[in-house]
């Protein structure tokens, strides 16, 4: 089996405790081996439970925590979504008094929105004595910060591949890499993690010579595809797939995350009626060449389909756009004509091939990958870490085209860790961009995990889990309809800001009559009211906002031309404007 990583050896940048070195050098070898074996078992369990939220909410970093005393597991927890209760706090609450002197196992170093130290403080207050970390956080502004705090407070922190270097930990380290592969690829390559999926017959055909392709694989295999979609931010197909198959590309899982559907078409030679143009259940984007069929672009826009024009439309340009949009994972379900350039451009990282025990033949029957320009078998791409799984009568073969990047070797020294505070490191810039909550200024996002208390129309103070929860609910507040009241309550109890946004946007598309009649004129005031409460309730956020004085704040959304700045600065950037307005008001009040 090919390993997806290389063994690491570091000086540790001054962060490795001397006590740890002494402990690893002393003691009975058999006792040490038994202890390390337990460490490996628990860290693999942390990685295993970290993936439990996959498919339930928009893809995000996967965090799991296991608290154990030797073989005894005292508590477990995993992060459902950013903005929900962290894995460490869940595990601590489950373990109770058994936390005293126990070891906490984390598949990934904690990394939260600005100044939210709940994961670290939960471990410290519970009396945890040792922490084993699978991976340092891959994002530079978060890497090493939580580890530094834990060690400063006297906890022993051991990191796989640094403090714990042994063949015993290879599989444990690999599990930590795999469970957060999307985040690692995004951090290393500045591209989303891309999976190419296809189903083919035993003789390598994805359809008959006529183009008929329903169904190549079994129902069980198709259910696995729905799971893959639910783990993705977007699903991509080409124009041929739309014309030939008229797919829906939904995950069809109850209460599962629904990815954005993206169609790549240079000429925009697409049918006027297609399942993908129905956006009541899932959002659709059409990526095309600039200037293609302007009238048809207007037709798509009238249906609620977003059209994005590119000067040069190719897989890499599209993936760079998806990166700017904040996507972590993308699933390619395209035909061979699009799969080939996607592979050639180096943006496909993993392959899922479903092989059905069927033979259909046909000289002109399409294959899963088109022409790659290779003339010798030695030029073929070899998959890494290949897995084989039988699903019903089909065989699923999967593997990586590019190894998972291991970013942990970059170990910052103690003084550099302290300098990673975004308020200090990025204050000298004239323009500060923010978008996703994992960004250095992610706390400015309305999706950040900061509950807000806002009085309702009766003067009663209500707590909303995030600004986004409040904003989405206000679309239907004050509408005299039982359905609207029900949707407000549904949004309020949504498990994450992403789910609140999904509910609010879906209801707005399906039931436009339930939206407040003056919503377009009210939404700016609604957002500003929530922002004022957020930055007045959290002093550290207030300080962060004031630290940007003199800088222009821009929400770096490439697609939201109202709240964001757009791809080329054509957006109105109202969220950035409101934050700068709030910053001015706070500064004026202080001066007065």
| CATH homologous superfamily assignment of the largest domain | Dihydrofolate Reductase, subunit A
**CATH architecture title of the largest domain:** 3-Layer(aba) Sandwich
Helix content: 25-40%
| Strand percentage | 15-25%
Distance between the termini: 68 Å
Helix-and-strand structural type = alpha/beta
Shape: globular
Kindly describe this structure.
This protein has helices at 18-25, 29-50, 87-95, 118-126, 145-152, 170-179, 181-189, 219-230, 239-245, 294-302, 315-324, 336-344, 414-418, 422-425, 467-474, 482-492, 497-510, 519-537, 539-546, 574-591; strands at 64-69, 72-78, 103-106, 130-133, 156-159, 193-201, 234-238, 260-264, 284-289, 306-310, 329-332, 350-356, 384-391, 394-400, 431-434, 452-455, 461-464, 552-555. It is α/β, with parallel strands linked by helices. The chain has 3 domains: 12-179, Cytidine Deaminase, domain 2, CATH 3.40.140; 184-372 and 381-400, Dihydrofolate Reductase, subunit A (3-Layer(aba) Sandwich), CATH 3.40.430; 414-591, Tetracycline Repressor, domain 2 (Orthogonal Bundle), CATH 1.10.357.40. The strands form 4 sheets. A 9-stranded mixed sheet has the order 10-9-8-7-11-6-12-14-13. Helix 2 (29-50) packs parallel to helix 6 and helix 15 (467-474) runs antiparallel to helix 16. The model is unreliable at 1-26 and 409-428 (pLDDT under 50).
Key attributes of the depicted protein:
disordered N terminus, 20 helices, Cytidine Deaminase, domain 2, single chain, Dihydrofolate Reductase, subunit A, 592 residues, Cytidine_deaminase-like, 16% strand, 9-stranded mixed beta sheet, 35% helix, Tetracycline Repressor, domain 2, 5-stranded mixed beta sheet, alpha/beta
């Amino acid at each position: 089996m090919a390993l997806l990583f290389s063994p690491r050896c570091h000086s540790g940048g001054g962060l490795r405790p001397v006590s740890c070195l002494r402990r690893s050098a002393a003691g009975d070898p058999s006792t040490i081996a038994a202890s390390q074996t337990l460490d490996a078992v628990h860290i693999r369990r942390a990685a295993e439970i970290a993936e439990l939220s996959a498919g339930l909410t928009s893809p995000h970093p996967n965090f799991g925590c296991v608290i154990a005393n030797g073989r005894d597991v005292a508590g477990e927890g995993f992060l459902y979504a950013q903005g929900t209760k962290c894995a460490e706090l869940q595990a601590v609450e489950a373990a109770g008094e058994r936390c005293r002197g126990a070891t906490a196992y984390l598949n990934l170093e904690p990394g939260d929105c600005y100044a939210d130290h709940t994961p670290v403080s939960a471990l410290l207050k519970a009396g945890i004595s040792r922490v084993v970390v699978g991976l340092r956080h891959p994002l530079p502004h978060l890497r090493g910060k939580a580890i530094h705090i834990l060690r400063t407070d006297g906890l022993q922190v051991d990191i796989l591949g640094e403090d714990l270097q042994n063949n015993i930990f290879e599989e444990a380290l690999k599990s930590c890499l795999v469970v957060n592969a999307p985040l690692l690829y995004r951090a290393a390559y500045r591209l989303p993690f891309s999976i190419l999926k296809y189903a083919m017959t035993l003789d390598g055909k994805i359809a008959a010579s006529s183009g008929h392709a329903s169904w190549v694989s079994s129902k069980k295999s198709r259910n696995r595809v729905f799971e893959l979609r639910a783990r993705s931010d977007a699903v991509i197909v080409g124009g041929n797939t739309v014309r030939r198959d008229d797919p829906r590309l939904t995950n069809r899982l109850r209460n599962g995350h629904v990815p954005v559907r993206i169609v790549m078409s240079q000429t925009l030679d697409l049918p006027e009626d297609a399942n993908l143009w129905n956006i009541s259940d899932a959002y659709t984007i059409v990526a095309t060449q600039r200037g293609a069929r302007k009238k048809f672009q207007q037709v798509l826009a009238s249906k609620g389909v977003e059209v994005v024009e590119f000067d040069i439309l190719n897989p890499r340009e599209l993936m760079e756009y998806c990166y700017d949009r904040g996507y972590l994972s993308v699933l390619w379900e395209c035909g061979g004509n699009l799969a080939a350039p996607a592979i050639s451009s180096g943006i496909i990282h993993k392959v899922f091939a479903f092989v059905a025990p069927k033979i259909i033949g046909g000289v002109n029957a399409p294959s899963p990958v088109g022409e790659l320009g290779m003339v010798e078998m030695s030029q073929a791409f070899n998959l890494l870490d290949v897995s084989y799984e039988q699903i019903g009568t089909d065989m699923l073969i999967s593997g990586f085209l590019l190894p998972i990047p291991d970013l942990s070797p970059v170990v910052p020294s103690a003084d550099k860790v302290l300098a990673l505070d975004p308020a200090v490191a990025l204050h000298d810039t004239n323009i500060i961009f923010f978008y996703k909550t994992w960004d250095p200024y992610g706390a400015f996002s309305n999706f950040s995990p900061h509950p807000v208390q806002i009085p309702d129309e009766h003067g009663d103070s209500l707590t909303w889990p995030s600004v986004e929860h409040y904003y989405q609910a206000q679309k239907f507040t004050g509408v005299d309809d039982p359905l609207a009241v029900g949707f407000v309550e549904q949004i309020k109890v949504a498990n994450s800001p992403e789910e609140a946004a999904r509910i609010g946007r879906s209801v707005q598309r399906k039931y436009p009559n339930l939206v407040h009649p003056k919503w377009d004129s009210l939404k700016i005031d609604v957002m500003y009211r929530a922002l004022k409460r957020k930055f007045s309730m959290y002093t550290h956020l207030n300080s962060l906002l004031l630290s940007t004085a003199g800088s222009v704040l821009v929400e770096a959304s490439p697609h939201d031309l109202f709240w964001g700045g757009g791809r080329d600065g054509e957006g109105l950037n109202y969220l950035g404007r409101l934050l700068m307005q709030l910053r001015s008001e706070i500064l004026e009040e202080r001066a007065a």
